[in-house]
Amino acid sequence: MAIPEQTHVISVDSVQPDFAAIHVAAELLRAGQLVAFPTETVYGLGANAHDSAAVGCIFSAKSRPANDPIIVHIAALGQIDAVAREIPDLAYQLAQHFWPGPLTLVLARHPNIPPNVSAGLPTVAVRMPVHPVARALIQAADCPIAAPSANTFSRPSATTAQHVLQDLGGRVAVILDAGPTPIGLESTVLDLTGEPVVLRPGGVDLEQLRVFIPNLQIKPRYIATDADPANAPGQLTRHYAPSAQVLLFSGPVGPVRAQMQQTAHDRIASGQRVGVLVIDEERELFVALPGVQVVTLGPGDDLAQVGARLFAALRALDRQGVDVIVVRALARAGLGAAIWDRLLRAADGKFIAVEG
Ligand code: AMP
Ligand code: MG
């Protein structure tokens, strides 16, 4: 692939994307180039999933290790047979209920899909996004699109076209800009190649999936960075991480808030630049601390909004140049499982347990 001389950002309507813009992007994909596009979860960095060389460019553009597999995106159920094989009935049941939407299924890989898409694994992850721009692009390109999140590897995922440009400017031919992504957290990854297990909590929550798979569990994703990646593709601990150190507090709300205030105070006193990431109701507890950067995530009872703003908030604090980010665990039910997962990995798998 020729390295693009510059990245073109093309604005498209998020509901009725302009055909001319989609056509330009689809032609680039068919010619082996990379295109970043919005989905309902986060922005994706796409390549033709049948084009092994183009897929290779995704890894280099993102500095993504070759052992981290990529999700393949389709626009119609009919495309699944060209991506996966030996598809169990459960996959069709789930697809009927959750597609298009933020659920990714891991299935046996079809030989048409080049091995580098799946980091050499015999499996493939496949999803049908609901975002009109993603759907129009896949249809116009007329091929499945391999697309990981459109960020530099291990950085917070991109939820706006500006985030993509910051990380991948000059490394991707076109960014389709349809504004912020509505969910803002990646898809739920469900492995159906053995006993069903959730590999990554995401936009579809565990409770919804347990209607179909009653005893479904989440496989823990917090493994040592030097563990054998073949056993846990893409599961290295530090991920979604800003440059700043993330201090994640967990425990009863009152003592946790007090500990966060004390820590912010101590760190400022020791000369560090401190960022605080809180729900709206907690802003007042921190704004009076001199020099502290407070970023809010929305009301504490609106986890959809908190999830949608999380990655942008981590990036905003990074741009303000803070050394440390103080944040606390929220409720872990529903979308809370995905929010906790992203915070824990941003904090390098560690949290500070506060006693009641
Ligand atoms: P991203 O698209 O950047 O959100 O990353 C995709 C993630 O999906 C990877 O990091 C893996 O955790 C998971 N994934 C993709 N393909 C597979 C696969 N074949 N087997 C297991 N997990 C996968
Ligand atoms: Mg990613």
State the main characteristics:
single chain, 356 residues, alpha/beta, DHBP synthase, Rossmann fold, 2 domains, 5-stranded parallel sheet, 9 helices, 16 strands, binds adenosine monophosphate, binds magnesium ion
Structure write-up:
The structure is a single chain. The longest helix has 17 residues, at 253-269. The chain is of the alpha/beta class and 356 residues long. Strand 10 and strand 11 (197-200) form a beta hairpin. It folds into 2 domains: 8-209, Alpha-Beta Complex (DHBP synthase); 245-353, Threonylcarbamoyl-AMP synthase, C-terminal domain (Rossmann fold). It has 9 helices and 16 strands. Adenosine monophosphate is lined by residues 68-69, 71, 106, 118, 121, 123-125, 148-149, 186, 189, 199-200, 233-235. Magnesium ion binds at residues 148-149, 157.
State the distance separating the first and last CA atoms. Answer: 57 Å
- Helix and strand composition category: alpha/beta
Q: What composes the largest sheet?
A: 11 strands, mixed
Overall number of domains? 2
Brief overview:
By secondary structure, the chain is an alpha/beta fold.
What is the topology?
Blueprint: E1 8-11, H1 19-30, E2 35-38, E3 43-48, H2 52-62, E4 71-73, E5 84-85, H3 89-98, E6 103-109, E7 123-127, H4 132-141, E8 145-146, H5 161-168, E9 174-177, E10 188-191, E11 197-200, H6 206-210, E12 245-250, H7 253-269, E13 274-278, E14 293-296, H8 303-319, E15 324-328, H9 336-346, E16 352-353
Parallel strand pairs: 1-9, 2-9, 4-7, 6-10, 12-15, 12-16, 13-14, 13-15
Antiparallel strand pairs: 2-3, 3-8, 4-8, 5-6, 6-7, 10-11
Helix pairs in contact: 1-4
The structure holds adenosine monophosphate and magnesium ion.
